[in-house]
Amino acid sequence: xxxxxxxxxxxxxxxxxxxxxxxxxxxxxxxxxxxxxxxxxxxxxxxxxxxxxxxxxxxxxxxxxxxxxxxxxxxxxxxxxxxxxxxxxxxxxxxxxxxxxxxxxxxxxxxxxxxxxxxxxxxxxxxxxxxxxxxxxxxxxxxxxxxxxxxxxxxxxxxxxxxxxxxxxxxxxxxxxxxxxxxxxxxxxxxxxxxxxxxxxxxxxxxxxxxxxxxxxxxxxxx
Length: 223
Fold this sequence. Notes:
By secondary structure, this protein is mainly α. The chain has ten helices and three strands, in the order βββαααααααααα. It is 52% helix and 11% strand.
């Protein structure tokens, strides 16, 4: 790096099974996280055998799935071979874990009417996050970033999803929020539930679907 005129910006020593650094070379910033092989092996066991559906662990396996080895190619291939079978049990677990909306979702129209935009956006993002996690699970794909960075690229690679999913989702957040935007997100939620029922009819979503359509009653008191 010094030969290339690089500059270290940050360095964090080994802690919680990770060490990392960031640096600049030729005006390009690199942010590198490093893990031991045994850490990756434990994460593979946790996700694919013990079915611990941790999003952060999915991100690690996604990096291994799409990575290119510089050294230790045989070791790298051995780890990746263990990831060839995304367990159906993990898909079902994630669906059950993230299929429901929060109680705050029921207040969406009231929040919109009062222009409580800060809380409303948090509610929308929480529902959208659950939809995305379920769609990745239905496609048996590991989530690439906990905050869904590179969303357009990763969602475009999903085969099972509502039609024009990303375009419809983006429109919800363009310009001022309206009732139509909330209704569009409701439709995406319903269509996601249909995809679940088509792939896993054994999962009962009747109660979840009913809850997702609930709204807070309006206060009709006369002044």
